[in-house]
Amino acid sequence: MITEAMLSKIENDLHAGPTFVNLFKPFFCEEQPMFLLAVVKYKKNPTWDSLLSVYQKHISTKSKLEANIPAPARSGIENYVKFWGDNQKAFKQQGVNLHIGAVAADVFDAAFEKVMLMFDSQLDTNMQQRAVCEKFLADYHVS
């Protein structure tokens, strides 16, 4: 029901993003919609700093806003962050600019897809959640 393109429109709107999180908080906890919006924003400008921000806010088990994602997806992200973190000095010596397109835009895709599947599954089985979602999308002209 909700697509990545829709989330991109929601993330761009200063009012829609927080409203999206607040509307879905009772159904999914705030971590899940916040994670989705953070990933969409990250993919628009995938830098080391933005990757680390999403990781620290939504993937790290130390985070208060840790997203509920499967262990294999979390492990893949953690390995990627560890690799880049461990090799930053070497990358800089080789002239790799960690702030412009050096990191993968798709590093969060497996986790993102799992959270999206969870959203869709919930919306397919819960008419109240579906109605809330449909009204939100209509109110913010997201299609």
How does this structure look, described?
The protein has 143 residues and is mainly α. It has a single domain (4-139), classed as Regulator of G-protein Signalling 4, domain 2 (Orthogonal Bundle). It is 70% helix and 0% strand. The protein contains eight helices and no strands. It has helices at residues 4-12, 16-28, 31-44, 48-59, 71-86, 88-93, 109-125, 127-139. Helix 2 packs antiparallel against helix 3 (31-44), helix 2 (16-28) runs antiparallel to helix 8 and helix 3 packs antiparallel against helix 4 (48-59).
Please sum up the structure shown.
The protein has eight helices and no strands. By secondary structure, it is an all-alpha fold. Helix 3 (31-44) runs antiparallel to helix 4 and helix 3 (31-44) packs across helix 7 (109-125).
SSE diagram, text form:
Blueprint: H1 4-12, H2 16-28, H3 31-44, H4 48-59, H5 71-86, H6 88-93, H7 109-125, H8 127-139
Helix pairs in contact: 1-3, 2-3, 2-8, 3-4, 3-7, 4-5, 7-8
Primary descriptors:
143 residues; 8 helices; Regulator of G-protein Signalling 4, domain 2; 0% strand; mainly alpha; 70% helix
Report the major sheet.
Answer: none
Form type = elongated
Number of domains: 1
Counting copies of identical and different chains, the oligomeric state is single chain
Radius of gyration: 16 Å
N- to C-terminal distance = 10 Å
Spans with pLDDT under 50 lasting ≥5 residues? none
What is the highest CATH level, the class? Mainly Alpha
Helix content: 55-70%
What's the total count of β strands? 0
Mean pLDDT across all amino acids: 89
Q: What are the secondary-structure elements, in order, as H or E?
A: HHHHHHHH
Assign the CATH superfamily: Regulator of G-protein Signalling 4, domain 2
Specify the structural class: mainly alpha
How much of the polypeptide forms β-strand, as a percent range? under 5%
* CATH-level-2 architecture: Orthogonal Bundle
Q: Using the coordinates shown, work out and report the CATH topology.
A: Regulator of G-protein Signalling 4, domain 2
Q: What's the total helix number?
A: 8
